[in-house]
Specification:
Elements lengths: L5 H10 L9 E7 L5 E5 L10 E5 L4 E4 L4 E7 L22 E8 L4 E6 L10 E4 L8 E7 L3 E10 L21
Antiparallel strand pairs: 1-2, 1-5, 2-3, 3-4, 5-9, 6-7, 6-10, 8-9
């Protein structure tokens, strides 16, 4: 259990934020001009009006401005987390349902991802995408809008407008009571 001193949490309690949630996720925050930061976030409340709220591994709470953040990578393990994500683009059309997007960052890097195909799940501060390599250490990646120059939709995978046709049953088996 993580314990905080009264002095550390005084400003947070006054603002009415709940830092001690029932769950926290491991993240690596990639920044434009600095080294990455590893820590924990509450997935429901980490996006503040002025930045990303991060509890570092040292136990300090930091609010990182959106302008400094390139991506927040939700990782499985800190030790396996490289500073740069592995596969950045899909090698072929993705199979998972969603919007296939290509994002171009301010520094020229290009990355693909899958957004949910539901406008009610969009976030005002940025986009949470599923990365191209599902077996990598990155499970999801949050990209702030201020980090992007361009976000292009490359395709809609699994559109609900076109129902999938059911495959006909094979005629190799005899019907009962024929």
């Amino acid at each position: 259990m993580i314990q905080y001193s009264q002095k550390c949490l005084k400003g947070i309690w006054e603002k009415g934020r709940d830092l001690a949630a029932s769950t926290s996720k491991k993240v690596v925050v990639r920044r434009f001009d600095r080294e990455p930061l590893a820590g924990f976030v509450n997935p429901r409340t980490y996006q503040l009006a002025d930045g990303i709220e991060l509890l570092t591994q040292a136990g300090t709470v930091q609010v990182l401005p959106y302008e400094e953040v390139k991506a927040v990578c939700f990782v499985r393990d800190f030790e396996a987390a490289p500073s740069e994500p592995g596969q950045r683009v899909f090698l072929s059309r993705p199979k998972t349902d969603g919007l296939w997007v290509r994002m171009k960052f301010r520094d020229g890097e290009v990355m693909d991802g899958l957004l949910p195909n539901d406008l009610l799940r969009t976030e005002r501060a940025g986009f949470t995408v599923v990365p191209p390599n599902p077996s990598s250490n990155n499970q999801r990646i949050f990209v702030p809008r201020s980090a992007l120059v361009e976000c292009q939709v490359l395709g809609v995978v699994g559109s609900p407008l076109k129902p999938r046709k059911a495959k006909p049953a094979p005629k190799t088996q005899m019907e009962m009571f024929e």
